[in-house]
Design goal:
Layout lengths: L15 H7 L2 H4 L3 H17 L5 H20 L11 H13 L12 H37 L4 E6 L2 E7 H25 L2 E2 L15 H7 L4 E2 L3 H6 L2 H28 L6 E2 L18 H24 L14 H24 L1 E2 L1 H8 L6 H12 L3 H18 L8 H5 L9 H5 L1 H7 L8 H16 L9
Parallel strand pairs: 3-4
Antiparallel strand pairs: 1-2, 5-6
Helix pairs in contact: 3-4, 3-6, 3-8, 4-5, 6-7, 6-12, 6-19, 7-10, 7-19, 10-11, 10-12, 11-12, 14-15
The structure holds arginine.
């Protein structure tokens, strides 16, 4: 049995089972720095407003610094009796500085306190993830530039479709990561408002200034409505959603890297530091890293759905269900930070097997569409007729055991006499790729243009709207 520390109303001691269910200290400890930072700002504001004395503020500020040092040096002993990080810090503060410590909780509640701490955590990690995303975009863009002439079969339905280049493929992912980055930045800006001072749900009769705490903590302004502020967790759902979307992108790329490193493809080689062996089959080199990145996408999706489910039926304002908001976010954040670091390393080290990719381009009649386009453009045929004639050319190539790009002019004219000189050159795969010069297309010139555009964009990212 342990003492009920957070209640003046509950006379009996809490059951051990209640504690096991109720306590969040085992996992919310990691919010200690946010908790202390928030408390310092709150105490500063209380003193500025004359609600506590300057001496009390100084004692609280000093005491909180000591608590932080104790936690960071490992000296701090987290007490079993402490329900959460907020109670643990406040209790230790009062042990260190005495009665002044008891004044800290004036004009606040754990409801706005936890809303603040958690939001600070989410905001900080939103920035960390965004920073890593920019590093990845740089890596992808550099790699794309190097590989803007390396051809591979572009696919739909995992079937060979049209020739593209590897730089183009990488730029597709770089573009996804750009939007991911923008999602994190826009969430950061939308949520950059201060919850502290909302107290339990209704505000406080003390003459506080939420502007002072907001400024001190680098927020844009205090939130508008306190009832909303202590009740909602959409800022947490946003980071979870942003991470899920990011991981979905990483997972799709991982799936491709896994396929491409299989013997059936061998289009790429992952560096040895991103592959592992088998305990029984000595010849094996397994793509564990992309497999894990793909696999970890499952847990981040679980975390998102889990918090949506927790929140969906809660009446305003705070309900203890909301304590379930943290572990999933901590887990998703950790997963995203690690995944992005690994991804960056893996892509920098990636080796491309140009010959294998080129050989694959000779399968699947990748330039067939170019014949149809030629018949439309040069012979004025309706596309459907051109499509039909091209089908016959593909059949002829199949009969001869060739790719459509290997047919001679005579072969092609045996199908339709409207096919004239110059077609053979058009059906060359590289010519086919470079013919796709429309905006955003795969022609090497267009890919290099995309590279330049994204490089310029990266250089323009200077941080987000904050007061810090
Ligand atoms: N540990 C709680 C949480 O994580 C802190 C807020 C508790 N507030 C309350 N009124 N019981 O949500």
């Amino acid at each position: 049995m342990s003492k009920n520390i957070a209640s003046a109303r509950i006379a009996t001691q809490s059951s051990e089972l209640l504690k096991a269910l109720n306590d969040s200290l085992p996992f919310d400890k990691i919010l200690y720095a946010e908790d202390i930072r928030g408390s310092k700002a709150h105490a500063y504001m209380l003193a500025e407003q004359g609600i506590i004395s300057q001496e009390d503020f100084e004692a609280i500020d000093r005491g909180l610094s000591q608590v932080q040092e104790e936690i960071e040096s490992g000296e701090f002993s987290f007490d079993d009796g402490d329900e959460d990080i907020h109670m643990a810090v406040e209790k230790r503060l009062t042990q260190i500085i005495g009665d002044s410590g008891k004044r800290l909780h004036t004009a606040r509640s754990r409801n706005d306190q936890v809303a603040l701490d958690f939001r600070l955590f989410v905001q900080k990690n939103t920035q960390e993830i965004a920073k890593l995303l920019l590093e990845n975009i740089n890596t992808f863009v550099d790699k794309a530039q190097e590989n803007a002439h390396i051809m591979l079969p572009g696919m739909t339905h995992l079937q060979h479709a049209q020739p593209i280049n590897f730089g183009y493929h990488l730029m597709a992912y770089a573009s996804m990561f750009k939007r991911d980055y923008e999602r994190f930045v826009s969430s950061f800006e939308r949520n950059n408002y201060s919850p502290i001072g909302c107290a339990a749900l209704a505000g406080t009769p003390h003459p506080i200034s939420r502007q002072i705490t907001s400024d001190k903590l680098g927020f844009i302004a205090p939130t508008l409505n306190c009832l909303d502020t202590v009740s909602d967790r959409d800022f947490a759902l946003e980071i979870l959603f942003n991470i899920s979307t990011l991981m979905m992108h990483i997972s799709r790329l991982s799936e491709e890297l896994i396929l491409w490193s299989a013997s059936e493809f061998r289009w790429i080689t992952l560096s040895d530091r991103h592959a592992t062996g088998s305990s029984i089959m000595p010849q094996k080199k397994n793509p564990d890293i992309p497999e894990l990145l793909r696999g970890k996408t499952g847990r981040v999706n679980g975390n998102l759905i889990s918090l949506f489910t927790v929140m969906k039926g809660l009446p305003l304002a705070y309900n203890k269900d909301m304590q379930e908001d943290k572990e999933g976010v901590f887990d998703s954040v950790k997963t995203a930070l690690l995944s992005l670091q690994v991804l960056n390393e893996m892509i920098s080290d990636l080796k491309v097997n140009e010959a294998k990719m080129a050989a694959a381009c000779m399968e699947g009649h990748l330039s067939a569409t170019d014949l149809a386009d030629y018949l439309v453009k040069e012979a004025g045929l309706p596309f459907r007729d051109a499509y039909h004639i091209t089908g016959n050319a593909v059949n002829l190539a199949e009969e001869k055991g060739l790719d459509i790009s290997q047919l001679t002019l005579e072969d092609l004219q045996s199908i339709d006499t409207r096919i004239q000189e110059g077609v053979v050159a058009l059906l060359d795969n590289r010519a086919s790729m470079n013919a796709r010069e429309s905006e955003g297309g795969t022609a090497t010139t267009r890919v290099l243009e995309q590279v330049e555009t994204l490089k310029l964009w990266v250089s323009q990212q200077k941080g987000y709207r904050t007061k810090q």
